[in-house]
Amino acid sequence: MAAISFAGERHALAAGETVLECLERTDHEIPFSCRNGTCLTCMMRLRTGTLPEASQAGLREGQKQQGYFLPCVCRPNVDLEIEAPADAELFGRAMVSEVTQLTLSVCRLRLRTATPLFYHAGQFINLRRGDGLVRSYSLASVPRFDDALELHVKRLAGGRMSNWICHELAVGEPLDIQGPNGDCYYIGGEPDRPLLLIGNGSGLAPLYGILRDALADGHKGPIHLYHGSRTAMGLYYGDELQALAKANKNFQYVACLSGDEGGAVPGARAGRAETVALAEHRDLSGWRVYLCGYPPMVQTAKKLAFLAGAALQDILTDAFELRDLRRLRRD
Amino acid sequence: MSESLFQRIGGTVAVDAAVDLFYRKVLMDPHVMHFFDSTDMDDQRAKQKSFLTMAFGGPHEYTGQDLRAAHAPLVADGLNDSHFDRVAGHLQATLEELEVDENCIAEVMAIAGGTRDDVLNR
Fold first, then answer.
1. Hey, how many other C-beta atoms are within 10 angstroms of the C-beta on A197?
2. Are A303 and B28 an interchain contact pair (Cβ–Cβ within 8 Å)?
């Protein structure tokens, strides 16, 4: 079995164990969130050894070259010497510039950074508050339009971070941010490719950014955005999206309501966003598809989009991490 | 020296052309689709790609032991000859759809057929 050396100690890995699991077993406190190689919260750095490829999947080229890797998905074959990255290498400072309620359960958080963050709309950043709690949120802002970073925070029952942001966080307070991360963003250089954007709830955040990025880039191919919610109260940015549809002939916005009021709301379609979208677009060969929101929707829609002809590498996803929901006691 | 099967069939370009077609057929077949339900799609596609590379006579690192270990849980779930035949049929249909030369198809199907005992853990 391979072993890891960390903080002056050497620990042999148990069979099938990840580096993160081993560090937890040996009483090291490593910050983590998703535990599946997505959020990058637990990122560490290699001193000596050879990393398995999977432990660097999803990192930027520069990060890979500097030896960063994700201990939560790292099952090494050889001994590794590793270190925790200096905090300043990963986290920067941001200040809250706005907290606005968009719906009963979604609020818009705007942040300003001391130095500009280079990112693509649709990528995600990690927020960390004073006590070390970390959560990931997707960027609805577009660097060329927006000075502030814009995030849409869905308030979850029992969600520690989301409730704190929506109820307690005030303008002027500092937050630590890490990122940008992820590959769910508009890819330039293919102005004629048709784009299908499907999101539910605050999954609209990355799509709103991607859409505006595409339009500003001069995208000429059709762009269809389906935003799903159970009730009309859960929809937001309808006016902004209608205005963009009016100004851009190639863009169509469709609101979808999966609850009882479904067909009764003017302008909205009845049904789940992914169901409606895929019924209206049966041949997706050559399309790029963006799926953002609740994991079951993202998984289902990914399969349906693939079967409708979209190539797997052209289906980009940003699924919520429902950490707080999973932790919720069921009594 | 004559060209290898992998060269004649078109190398990695052929694998890329075949993988989505093949995977779609498998996912849409009610007889075998449930074996693919719980797997991550990108991960599954990568595995299909390695499999096709091997079946096309290309460079690969597959061993009989790998195939056995990977399919053992599926065999426990009832994977049998009928499922193997269906998937092999989808492979053949994919190659025909891509208008691959008959002789090449025969060679690919022979390589794929040779994995039967390992896949079914016999």
1. 29
2. no
Nearest residue to A34 via CA among A328, A320, A330, A294: A320
Element (DSSP H or E) covering residue B13: helix B11-28
Cα gap A201→A203, rounded to integer Å: 5
Looking at this protein, which amino acid is placed at residue A309? G
User: Is the pLDDT assigned to residue B10 strictly greater than 80?
Assistant: yes
**Could you tell me if residue A37 is inside a domain?**
yes
- Residue A59 pLDDT exceeds 90: no
Q: Cβ–Cβ of B41/A312 closer than 8 Å?
A: yes
Closest chain A residue by Cα to residue B42: A312
Amino acid in position A229 = S
The interface pTM score, or ipTM, of the predicted complex is 0.81
Q: Which residues, 6+ apart, have CB-to-CB distance to A247 below 8 Å?
A: none
Q: Which CATH class is domain B5-119?
A: mainly alpha
* Residue A330: pLDDT band with limits 50, 70, 90: very low
Pairing label, strands A92-101, A106-113: antiparallel
Q: What are phi and psi of A106, to 5 degrees?
A: -120, 130
The residue type at A68: Y
Within-domain flag for A330: no
Number of domains in chain A: 3
- pLDDT tens by residue, A100-135: 999 999 999 999 998 889 999 999 999 999 998 999
Nearest CA in chain A to B40: A299
* Cβ contacts of A68 within 8 Å, gap of 6 or more: A43, A44, A45, A46, A56, A59, A85
